[in-house]
Amino acid sequence: VGVSIEASANPVCAGTQVTFTATPTNGGSAPAYQWKVNGTNAGTNSTTYAYFPVTGDIITCILTSNATPCATGSPATSNSVTMTVNPNLPVNISIEASANPVCAGTQVTFTATPTNGGSAPAYQWKVNGTNAGASSTTYAYAPVTGDIITCILTSNITPCATGSPATSNAVTMTVTIPTTVTVKRKFSTGWSWFSLPVENANMYVDQVLSSFAHNEGDYIKSQTVSATYYRGFGWFGDMKKIDPREMYKIKLSVADSLIYQGSPVDPAASPITISRGWNWIGYLPQSAQPISTALISINPSNNDYIKNQTISSTYYDGFGWFGELSVLGPMDGFMLKAYQASALTYAQVGVPLVKLNNDFGATLNINTLKDALAFKDFEYSGQVTASVYLNGVNFAGRDYCLYSLVNGQVRGQSRGMWFDPGQQWIHNHLIYSNLNDGDTVRFRLYDADSDQWYSFEEFVIFRADMLIADALNPFILKSSSLLAPSNLSLEPSLTVWPNPASMQAAIHYVLANDQKVIIQILDFSGRVVEELSFGLQLAGEHTAQWNPMFLEQGVYYLRIKYSRGAYKKVVIAR
Q1: Is it the case that residue 461 has pLDDT exceeding 80?
Q2: β partners of residue 279
Q3: Is the previous residue joined to 271 through a cis bond, with omega within 30 degrees of 0?
Q4: Does residue 68 contact residue 28 with C-beta atoms inside 8 Å?
């Protein structure tokens, strides 16, 4: 007669129930079992025994057999099982702020103190229930009042970790906002769009604009009312007060600065009514924020559109906002075209600064233009969403700039942006005018890589706040012609088609004057590998054929040398 026992687990963590199982040999039809813990009877007459052991407990079992005949060694004592019970390691985390309360805009560092985190604990910080920060014992940001910060600790300690992942205590931030701030913005001559993120008891036009020197004929308008300044009288018109929720257009004859003192506007208490169609809206928070965050409360619809004085963005379902306007900021003004009525409630972010000094100027600076865009000279704007095709190929990218012209005067400029849903380069092209309707607008493209200009047969008729086409169905500019350098540049131009090239390629160049021409092909190190000499050539357009098939695959440069000694180069990738 014999018996052996086995534990369901050993070692175990404190508080774990362990089941011991007896395996008899020749126990008979009705064997009897007596379990013992540390020599003391325990359990019942059963092949199993379960309990919560402590470390050092010794478990045995005595089997009394009823097997007949000839049973020997009954009762039989089993092997002993000595239990190892490890203590539980409760996982905990506490967090603490470097300061609370704080002044608005103060960066606060939150520090986590783990208990039983293990050798590689993982941290997930949360602000108001939303994931924030990295997996670190610290997290720093500038909170706003009411923010609730917590941290979740996931431990890798073994064995016997309990309570993982563990959530920390919550820290609720109190942020004190200054009661008075002074804002300042510089205005150039001409038209400027603006809004005001502060207010006080006196928001009358003459008070808000009192920092201006004022000149006869200075003019300000909102979406519905306006006022004109008359020397010796003051501001006259239907506009009586400035509302921070609105955007204003102001025209000054002399550059000046708006300086005004007031209390920061509480965006939550100042929702902006958004009507279907155009809305002139101000920006109420004290710091800039991404457009997707700033406008989330309106639940944008497909083709909703927003612009400031220089750039714009359009909303596309399934993609989001697309355009150069990616951030909204204080003291800027915006025109929003919405396809459904809603209420815009900005989230308060950032610091009410002692002084906000914003001077919003042109966002593009193209030095090659002889006649740079002076957008502040114009009252109205409208947009053409365009895509450029040359020889059937979408011809754009950040090295290409599209210009719009009215009677030879530059009225708009834009660089291409890649629009993934449409798989093409798009120009969100704002055009400016002082006519509400009627200007004929033509287009030119500048290729900075080859210093070459193209003109297009396509044109549009300007109308204030027009929205022609969109990024999914753009206005196509395709009927192009290469401009002679004398039209916009006195330097010779050089282009290659196709590029990349593998077999035959056409080298097209334009000369401003009669001159001797040599075209050199250089490898990546700058070594001349081939030279094409054409002697004296007349001013105008020329095309030469080049066969690169004997060159190894790689990147090559072409440069045109002419009698004056200058040269240009382009990249040929094979």
Answers
A1: yes
A2: 336
A3: no
A4: yes
166 bridge partner residues:
153
DSSP string computed for 131-179: EES-SSSEEEE---TT-EEEEEEE----S-EES-SEE---EE--EEPPS
Please give the span between the terminal C-alpha atoms of the chain, in angstroms, as a whole number. Answer: 88
273-298 mean pLDDT: 91
Q: What share of the chain is helix, strand, coil (3-state, %, to 5)?
A: 5, 50, 45
What's the token pair of residue 91? Answer: 């996982």
| Cβ burial, residue 139 (10 Å; 0-12/13-18/19+) | buried
Q: Starting at the edge strand that comes first in sequence, how are the strands of the sheet with 305-307 ordered?
A: 277-281, 334-338, 305-307, 312-316, 320-323
The answer to whether residue 365 scores a pLDDT higher than 60 is no
Integer Cα distance of 400 and 447 in angstroms? 5
* Counts for the chain of helices (H) and strands (E), in that order: 3, 58
For 249, phi then psi, to 5°, come to -110, 125
Distance between CA 263 and CA 260 in Å, rounded?
10
What are the two backbone dihedrals, phi and then psi, of residue 342, each rounded to the nearest 5 degrees? -165, -170
Among the ranges given (13-17, 113-117, 445-449), the one the predictor scored with the smallest mean pLDDT: 445-449
